[in-house]
Amino acid sequence: MTQKINNPTSGPSPPAGRQVFKGFPGAPGIAVGRAFVFVARTPFVRARTIDSSKINEEKERFHAALAETREELIGLKERASSMVGNTLAQIFDAQILILSDPAIESSVEKEITEKHTAAEVAFDRAVRKTLAKLAASPAAYLRRMSHEIDAVSTRVLNRLLGLPTLGLSDLDKPAILVASILTPSEVIGLKKENVLGIISEAGGQTSHTTLLAKSLNIPAIVGVTGAVAKIPNGTSLVVDGYSGSIYLNPDTVTLDLYNRKRRESITLWSKRYEGLRDLAAVTSDGREIDLYANIDMADEAENVVAAGAGGVGLYRTEYLFLRQGRFPTENEQYKIYRRVARTLAPRPLIIRTFDLGGDKYFAEPHAAVEENPALGWRAIRVSLQKKAPFKAQLRALLRAAVNADIRVMFPMIISVDEVREAMMLLDEARRELGTRGRQVGDVQVGVMIETPASVWIADSLAGMVDFFSIGTNDLTQYTTAVDRGNPRVAHLFRHFHPAVLQAINVTLKCAQRHTIRIGICGEIASEPRALPLLIGMGVTQLSVHPSIVPRSKAIIRKLVYQDARGMAAEVLACASATEVEQKLNSYYRDHFRYRKA
Ligand code: PEP
Ligand code: MG
Predict the structure, then answer these.
(1) DSSP readout, 311-344?
(2) Whose CA is nearest to atom 6 of ligand 1?
(3) Is residue 472 lining ligand 1, measured as CB closer than 6 Å?
(4) What pLDDT does 12 receive?
(5) Contact predicate 224/180, CB 8 Å
(6) Which of 207, 355, 359 to mutate to test the pocket of ligand 1 (most atoms within 8 A of CB)?
(7) What pTM does this model have?
(8) Can you list the domains of the chain with their CATH numbers?
(9) Which string of b and e fits 222-257 if b means at least 16 CB within 10 Å?
(10) What average pLDDT does range 560-566 have in this prediction?
């Protein structure tokens, strides 16, 4: 009998005519609730003059609005600081500073005095003039600053007009968050219990905000053009994070359907794949696969074990920084790594050193805004310059590795020099602990293959390390020059692009020649269609989101490796991503027929 593997993206078709928007599925799951639209909308300001006897009163009204807004921002900064730490809270400093701009203040006072213009009108004009100048600036950081000015001026205008201003801090009861853009730090600062789902205009399927939503188990849809303008605050919504569909004001049939799907999706994996937990991830013709899981937070280690994964293939430690807005101390990290390792034991734990920067906001006070953060001060580049916190991390994981299978992995490597230097610092960390009389464990060392440069020098890298881990999210971004977080090019972000597959293949062959371990921890590994291809290509270690482990295991156990090899050879000869996908779809349909739930 053919074993049927349920595809969670399928299900009963919703009633026609109810589907309003389509985005890209970001994080799986169903959310049903009311919209909380988070974008300070610029209010409409009607031209208005005041009586000449009211000039002083009007100026006072203007200054009071500035002072109240300043107070409001200081309050928000304090709140952000207690939730995510001081560094991230400094975002508010820029906004507070804008309120004291003397050019805007004097321009408003002049208009009120000379033309008897109402305060909100004069202020709106002054701000628009500044914004126009910034918008025309060739410097990206100045153009970006216009968002800050816009956000602050909206708060001031709302005060002058007596309108409420919505902010993330106002999300104080469960709702579906609709936003134009959300940063990872904003997501991490949210009260999880109040966020039923996320809809964002920005973001791609492998942007870090999206991956974080997945880790927090918040259904998310990204790249929804015009969501903020089209979804009124408080609207009843259904978010289908599997298909990327959003239903506005759903009728009772749609609501019932999705409430049922939501209940099912929660129990789906636990029930359907219960029996798989303790079984090995082995193909039906006996090829053993190390099926690991990716985690963003320490608490997820329990889910990894519950899901039946063989270990953690990627622990994104940078979220320790993003949560607190500062580098965690050696001792703090030691305790966390030891707890995770103990939860997993005897399974391995691959700790990736801080991968800050890029779309994982990392700014130091007074640092210039980067024109191209994805190509800028990111990942290992930050660690090699910020040696003290990097070494504290290395010492912490060396200590935690005593009697535990902890491996260390360096992100976004482009040269042998970086690996040499990182390993030198690892040695130094080891020596420092020795001087202190501390015990250290043995750690295997690996590098992430995420850049074309690392693929081209894989032969040299393989001679230096114990393992490779291919990060296909960044590898796709850098190989195809497609920003992984930009919704305008989300359709071009394809990890089935032949160039990406060739890069994986070259790296794989190289690791095999050097007999070092190699795994894949990018999102491609979580795609059911990709499993027969990757395993057919020779991959023996995959790391996926914990919730994906049971389904992946079911696919692996049904797969015939020898058969998949032939298919992989054909796929590697394809010239386009579309051709690859067609082949994978038909292979998946023929071998893993899934049941419409
Ligand atoms: C990747 O780039 O594929 C990867 C796993 O790392 P991250 O998604 O954290 O950049
Ligand atoms: Mg990466």
Answers:
(1) SEEEEETHHHHHHHTSPPPHHHHHHHHHHHHHHH
(2) 471
(3) yes
(4) 42
(5) no
(6) 355
(7) 0.72
(8) 2-40+168-265 (3.50.30.10), 54-161 (1.10.274.10), 275-595 (3.20.20.60)
(9) bbbeebbeebeeebbbbbbbbbbbbbbebeeebbeb
(10) 97
